[in-house]
Amino acid sequence: GVPDDSVRVVGGLLPELAADVAAADGVLFVDASADLAPGEVRVAPVSGTGAGARWTHSLSPADLLALTAAVYGRTPPADLVEVGGRTFEVGARAPYGLRIPRATFPPAVR
User: Fold this and answer.
1) Which of 7, 39, 55, 91 has the fewest CB within 10 Å, making it most exposed?
2) 18 vs 92: CA distance, rounded Å
3) What is the DSSP pairing of strand 78-84 with strand 41-45?
4) H or E element at residue 18
5) pTM (whole model) above 0.85
6) pLDDT tens digits for range 70-107
7) What is the dihedral of CA 33, 36, 39, 43, to 10 degrees?
8) Taking a C-beta distance cutoff of 8 angstroms, is the pair 59, 13 a contact?
């Protein structure tokens, strides 16, 4: 399992997370996606190279990795797990109990 202090649940990726990312052995970003069918899961590696980092108060995973590299000189391996959502209306509740098969994740986080 993952120790509690290794999990960050955030509403958005902020520049302040760069220190945590730099200190990590690996990062797994999990996000809801309107581009996937509800419950569908897609996993892809994330790189901070070539990212058009805006370094504002709303970053993409690639932007956060690029900022981490610029400030701390390193980035850990990172993957983005996207899960298709059914509704994205304000106040809509996410279904609890969503199970993502362990085999879906990269070997480093299994």
Assistant:
1) 91
2) 29
3) antiparallel
4) helix 18-23
5) no
6) 999 999 999 998 888 777 666 656 555 555 566 655 56
7) -80
8) yes
